[in-house]
Amino acid sequence: MRVKWASGFSVGVILITGGCALSAGEAPAALDNRWRPLFDGRTLEGWTPKIRGYELGENYRDTFIVRDGAIRVSYDRYSEFGSRFGHLFHETPVSAFRLRLEYRFLGDGPSDTPGWARYNSGVMIFSQAPESMARDQGFPVSVEAQLLAADGSAPRANGNVCTPGTDIVMEGRLIKQHCINSPVAARPADGRWILFEIEVSPSGLVTQRIDGEVSLVYSSPQLDPKADMADSLPLIAAAGGRLEMKGGYLSLQSEGAPIEFRNIEIMDLGTLTPPQVANARPTSE
Question: Does residue 19 sit within a domain?
Answer without folding.
Answer: no
